[in-house]
Amino acid sequence: MAVHSPPRSSGTGSTSPTGVTRHRARFPVTGWVLGILSAISAFLGAFILLAGDEQSVGLGGQVSWEVGQIDPAWGYGLLAVGVVAGLAALALLIRTRRLPASPAAEHRSGWGDVAAHAAVFLAVNAFLWAQDIALGDGLNYALWITIPWAIGLAAHALTQYTAAHRTSEPSK
After folding, report:
1. Helix (H, G, I), strand (E, B) or coil at 97
2. In angstroms, rounded to a whole number, what is the distance separating the alpha carbons of residues 159 and 150?
3. Are 100 and 23 in contact (CB under 8 A)?
4. CA neighbours within 13 Å on the CB side: how many for 42?
5. Phi/psi of residue 115, nearest 5 degrees
6. What is the Cβ-side half-sphere exposure of residue 113, based on CA atoms within 13 angstroms?
7. What percent of the chain has pLDDT over 90?
8. What pLDDT digit, counting tens, does each position of 44-92 carry?
9. DSSP for residue 64
10. At what angle do helices 142-168 and 111-134 cross, to 10 degrees?
11. CB 66 within 8 A of CB 56
């Protein structure tokens, strides 16, 4: 009679008492995009509905509107879209938590996550710097977003680097 040991977990999931490894699925990019868009939409809708008439919303300069000039229907619409997109992102998160991860996800390198983080960092910060410069007042706020985020990105890359080298070293 052969004795089989339960499968070992690779750190991406947990082993149940029956010996079956359950994997926690990652939150997909679609969920992140929906979550971010829902937050932006809900914020803009609430701002249009709650801010004073003399407040401005927009990118700055000629690409800004006074809240008093915006029809309140836009505020309600943006708020509704934000709530619906937020609920969709939440449903997607719950769904991915229940699904097992694919076997390929266990062997995937974390460098793809670092590259995705860097791509989002570059895209968002390029937009923020362009907006900050377009306002014409010099650099007001983009630097205060870029510096802490760059520190976080460097920490992410350093963590992946040390994890990759820790797994590649032979055991003593």
Report:
1. helix
2. 14
3. yes
4. 12
5. -65, -40
6. 16
7. 13
8. 899 989 988 888 887 777 777 888 888 899 999 999 999 998 898 888 8
9. E
10. 170
11. yes
Query: What are residue 60's DSSP bridge partners?
Result: 63
**Residue 113 identity:** D
What is the CB-side half-sphere exposure of residue 168 using CA atoms within 13 A?
7
End-to-end CA distance of the chain: 34
Q: What single-letter amino acid sits at 171?
A: S
Task: Look at the pTM and tell me if it is higher than 0.70.
Answer: no
Alpha helix stretches (DSSP H) within the chain: 29-50, 72-98, 103-106, 111-134, 142-168
The first and second tokens of residue 39, run together, are 């937050």
Determine the residue type at 110: G
Confidence at 164, pLDDT banded by 50, 70, 90? confident
Q: What angle do CA 44, 50, 72 make, to 5 degrees?
A: 70
Residue with tokens 């339960």: 6
